[in-house]
Amino acid sequence: MRSTRARVLVSALFAVAALSACSQPSSTSPGLPGGPGGDAPVSATHPPADPSRAADRGMVTGTVSRADGSPVPGVGIGVQSVDNPAKPVPQLVVTTDAKGVFQWNLEPGRYEFHIRTGGTSITGQAAPQPATVTAGQTSTVNFTLT
Known about the structure:
The chain is 14% helix and 29% strand. The protein has one helix at residues 2-22, and strands spanning 58-66, 76-81, 93-95, 101-106, 109-116, 129-133, 138-140, 143-145.
């Protein structure tokens, strides 16, 4: 009986944590959790991140611009781990700000970044960009829409 109660309580705590993370707006992704530092995934296999481990992550920053160099705000940037096993990615998408800038705080590893313009009035394409994330360092990934 006690074991069942503990499991129910732990499940409820994870559900509350996941729901509260979803309701916090982001400064880089309006309506998405995370902001510039990103939130760690919350699930039974990926409990909430320990804030003291922030130094164990690396930053990826970049811009999205048009061929003429003008910034493109509101572009979604997606990422996936290309490591095996894959690293968890804390957010599905971050969005460029008014200056076309985005940033993402990720665990060290190899990733592929891609733009997402579907469902927006933004036109253009850009090839996916690889990046290697190293703890305590910043990598740059820039896109030019063609």
